[in-house]
Design brief:
Layout (H helix, E strand, L loop, with lengths): L2 H8 L1 H19 L33 H4 L8 H9 L9 E3 L2 H13 L4 H12 L6 E3 H16 L14 E6 L6 H14 L4 E4 L6 H14 L3 E2 L7 H15 L3 E4 L8 H18 L6 E7 L5 H12 L4 E5 L9 H9 L3 E5 L7 E3 L2 H8 L5
Parallel strand pairs: 3-6, 3-7, 4-5, 4-6, 7-8, 8-9
Antiparallel strand pairs: 1-2, 9-10
Helix pairs in contact: 1-14, 2-5, 2-7, 4-7, 5-6, 6-7, 7-14, 8-9, 10-11
Subcellular location: Cell inner membrane; Cell membrane; Cytoplasm
InterPro entries: AAA+_ATPase, P-loop_NTPase, Signal_recog_particl_SRP54_hlx, SR_rcpt_FtsY, SRP/SRP_N, SRP54_GTPase_dom, SRP54_N_sf
Catalytic activity: GTP + H2O = GDP + phosphate + H(+)
């Protein structure tokens, strides 16, 4: 199965929520104007709604590119042509884009965890140059997907690989966000790509955490450096650095504990790990990945704020996008922080992590096909 199919299937809750919301918004208002259009639902017969207002089937005559400076330049021509040029779309109910419809759209996007500011801006962009036009739910989905893709494209960046050996990747995040699982998945992918990887089980507070990482290491075929429970994680990190250097490893991934007594402890521990590995390589860590759990919704925003104060976060991984209705939070994150999103997780298996693709994500999120 392609990752897109997997993403779309597993994003069902988010996408059915947003997709159904858009369908509802359009059909809501379309009813009021039915006499002019599809009130009888003549099977397959195209109704003839107010000719001047029907924007889409005649793209040649529409000065859309200038009316629409904010729309995504890369995504529009192909998809508009494909979708709006297609005959079946004509049978869809249409609704005139007015203030009431925009308010409903805004409200729906906020409820889908996109955040107030982002929802307002996305809605304004969709409205620009289109007020008074009659649009269908499919068109609305395409427009929304275009807007989302435009926000997400600049942040869709795979984990950068540097010639530096070992490249040190510090993985941080709150308890249960998916750090250990993500390290296992990433290690497996880098190994498969021919990289030599070493993992350091820096969460030395729980024996179970070390065992969990060892299982992932076995699955991925990657060595896991461990230390007895309660050992100072910084000293384990130092040893792991020594080993990774000695073995000529390409990547050293350091897991950390998500749960400590308080923020101060966590900050001190992360700072100590960084201090110690810098004794070996002043440029390390080369990446600090913050792992976020999509099911926490808006809370992910405050986690980014907190962790940026604790560590020099260089990129994000969003896990658990499967089965949550809160995938919209990724749009808010991208819009607010602009931090690279390196990967997304859509399940607990080793291959349930992939590079983040803005267009795929946007289309899956609004419930559109590839
Ligand atoms: N459905 C789903 N579950 C995931 C995903 N990523 C991780 N999980 C699950 O989330 C739970 C917590 O994941 P961990 O990797 O242990 O999280 P952690 O951040 O290391 O947690 P601590 O070590 O307690 O701080 C586990 O049951 C994982 O299987 C994902 O993308 N989708
Ligand atoms: Mg863990």
């Amino acid at each position: 199965m392609s990752f897109f199919s997997k993403l779309r299937d597993r994003l069902t809750r988010s996408s059915s929520k947003i997709g159904a919301g858009l369908d509802e918004i359009v059909s809501d208002g379309a009813g009021e104007e039915k006499p002019a259009s599809a009130s009888e639902r003549p099977a397959g017969l195209a109704p003839a709604p107010a000719p001047a207002a029907q924007p889409m089937p005649a793209p040649v005559a529409e000065p859309q590119p200038t009316a629409d400076p904010a729309a995504s330049p890369d995504a529009r021509p192909g998809m508009l042509g494909r979708i709006f040029g297609r005959a079946p779309a004509i049978a869809e109910p249409r609704r005139e884009l007015d203030d009431e419809m925009l308010e409903q759209l805004e409200e729906m996007l906020i409820q889908a965890d996109m955040g107030v500011e982002t929802a307002l801006r996305v809605t304004a962009n969709i409205a620009e140059g289109r007020m008074g036009r009659r649009i269908s739910a499919t068109e609305l989905k395409e427009l929304l997907a275009g807007e989302i893709a435009r926000i997400m494209t600049p942040v869709a960046k795979p984990l950068p690989l540097y010639p530096k050996r070992p490249q040190v990747v510090l993985v941080v995040g709150v308890n249960g966000s998916g750090k250990t699982t993500t390290i296992g998945k990433l290690a497996s992918q880098f190994k498969a790509a021919g990289k030599k990887v070493v993992i350091a089980a820096g969460d030395t507070f729980r024996a179970a955490a070390v065992e969990q990482l060892q299982v992932w290491g076995q699955r991925a075929g990657v060595p896991v450096m461990t230390a007895p429970e309660g050992t100072d994680p910084a000293s384990l990190a130092f040893d792991a650095m020594t080993r990774a250097e000695a073995e000529g490893a390409d990547l050293l991934m350091i897991d950390t504990a998500g749960r400590l007594q308080n923020r101060q402890d966590l900050m001190e521990e992360l700072a100590k790990i960084v201090r110690v590995i810098r004794k070996k390589d002043p440029s390390a860590p080369h990446n600090t990945l913050l792992v976020l759990d999509a099911t926490t919704g808006q809370n992910a925003l405050s986690q980014v704020e907190t962790f940026r104060k604790l560590a020099d976060v260089s990129g994000l991984v969003m896990t658990k996008l499967d089965g949550t209705a809160r995938g919209g939070v990724l749009v808010a994150l991208a819009d607010r922080f602009g931090l690279p999103i390196h990967a997304i997780g859509v399940g607990e298996q080793i291959d349930d992590l992939d590079a983040f693709d803005a267009r795929e994500f946007a289309r899956a999120l609004v419930g559109l096909g590839d």
